Structure prediction request, 226 residues.
Amino acid sequence: DIQLTQSPSFLSASVGDRVTITCRASQAISSYLAWYQQKPGQAPKLLIYAASTLQSGVPSRFSGSGSGTEFTLTISRLQPEDFATYYCQQLYTNPLTFGGGTKVEIK
Amino acid sequence: QVQLVQSGAEVKKPGSSVKVSCKASGGTFSTYTFSWVRQAPGQGLEWMGKIIPIFDTTYYAQKFQGRVTITADKSTSTAYMELRSLRSDDTAVYYCAKEDNISYQHDSWGQGTLVTVSS
Prediction:
């Protein structure tokens, strides 16, 4: 199975900060990577797919980059509604594994 | 936009089985792929398996092989996930999700079904 390692697992940031989350794959997955946002009590919400394509309706302050084994999710200017947990998922091969998550909290 | 509506919360005894449903609307059911993902309390997301209704093909994560069965009823546009031999560590919220046909991301999710396993 492909392992995804997210870092950091937790980060504390302020409104307006630029935030970067990294996801590393245990083997090359081309650009078959998605990012999700999850708030407490809610289902995950798709933010980015194909490593860098913004899902329709998602604010442009979210961006994704990378290919192969290293990927990043960047939030350019953190907003109050962005405090949540973020997960990456590889879509290259079954099983479609998730990273362990990054919880973004208010500093 | 496909909408996914799941069945309600369940409380089960250890050793029993649970079957969760996921009814899709707003699209062509048989052409999609549906995954099941679970989340134990306070934990991350765990992919369990998926079904491609048009081919009746399933894939399961090794961890759940032999204990999970994912099916689909094309006549009612409903996907199902049955988990057997339940243990306390199967207590989780179970989500169904639709997979995009090109890039495979999960672009629609059900609201989740809490399954509690307790004696």
Observations:
- Chain B has a mean pLDDT of 96.
